[in-house]
Fold:
Amino acid sequence: MSQGFFYNLLSLIFVLRVLIMYNEHETFFSCPYCFERISFLLEELYGAQKYIEDCEVCCQPIEIDYKITDGQMQWLRVERAQD
Ligand SMILES: [Zn+2]
Structure:
């Protein structure tokens, strides 16, 4: 095995690790019902996302609305989901 091949392999592993890290953006916010600190993983890197997730503490439905551009969170809005 040549040294060049070995370094290419290392850089490939590094790129894969960075991609995995970007896919698991952990973000924290306070629940609009019980005010507990909740973490969630951002699955989408680009564009706006809006979905409803139950609070892991009080199980109330929370509307999560965020936008990510170039790996940076542009805004995050968390409020009580409307019935
Ligand atoms: Zn809660």
